[in-house]
Amino acid sequence: MRIYSNTLFFLFILAYKLFLPFNAFGGSIYENGLKNYIKDDLKKFLFIKEKNKVKSLKTIDRQNNIVEINTERKILIINFWATWCAPCKKEMPSLNHLAKKFKKEKLEIVTIASGRNSISHIEDFFLKNQIDELPKYRDPSGKTAISYKVIGLPTTIIVNSRGEEVGRILGDIDWQKEEIYDFFNALLKIENI
């Protein structure tokens, strides 16, 4: 019984630490400006309570070069996924469509295959599913995902033009819906970029 209660206590503390910065309704400028767009799939969106600059986004490209992605001057959508993750693979074509839809806007989508994902598996998946608008970045060690407090895949993190996390979505959603487009159009309007 003692081991069980210690385990529960540890899990509670871990969950508290991981989700402390998040709130379904935190009252930020983003929540107030976007709450009318939170419906259907976007009910999974967790607004961040505190303004925190995101860590420098370093990842690995197709040629195994370390790439640092600028997290400012645009809205950044960071999607952590894996080639072995069924929900990740399900949402990726609609995320590609979102990238096409907002191609001319100050909005960038960065996909990062976290964990053991060979570049050949990533390229095969992209080719098979006609994904041509998303980058093929990797995080083989999982260090980037850990630094962003990713606890499951897929996880999508929305970053504002000042490099601060607005919120995140845990799990897959269909990015190819009008309410998603409305959400990002409203976010672009709030950011005034």
TL;DR of this structure?
The chain is α+β, with helices and mostly antiparallel strands and 193 residues long.
List keywords for this structure.
alpha+beta, 9 strands, Glutaredoxin, 6 helices, 36% helix, globular, 193 residues, single chain, seven-stranded mixed sheet, two-stranded antiparallel ribbon
Question: What would you say this structure looks like, in words?
Answer:
This protein is 36% helix and 22% strand. The protein is α+β, with helices and mostly antiparallel strands and 193 residues long. The strands form 2 sheets. A 7-stranded mixed β-sheet has the order 1-2-9-8-5-6-7. A hairpin with a 5-residue loop joins strand 3 and strand 4 (66-69). The relative contact order is 0.21.
Secondary structure elements and pairings:
Elements: H1 2-19, E1 22-23, H2 29-34, E2 45-48, E3 57-60, E4 66-69, E5 75-81, H3 86-101, E6 107-114, H4 119-128, E7 137-139, H5 143-147, E8 155-159, E9 165-170, H6 178-191
Proper CATH architecture? 3-Layer(aba) Sandwich
Provide the CATH superfamily. Glutaredoxin
Q: What is the level 1 CATH name? A: Alpha Beta
Helix content: 25-40%
The gross shape turns out to be: globular
* Count of folded domains: 1
Under CATH, the topology can be stated as Glutaredoxin
Query: What's the gyration radius in Å?
Result: 17 Å
What structural category arises from helix and sheet content?
alpha+beta
In DSSP terms (H or I, runs of 4 or more residues), the helix count works out at 6
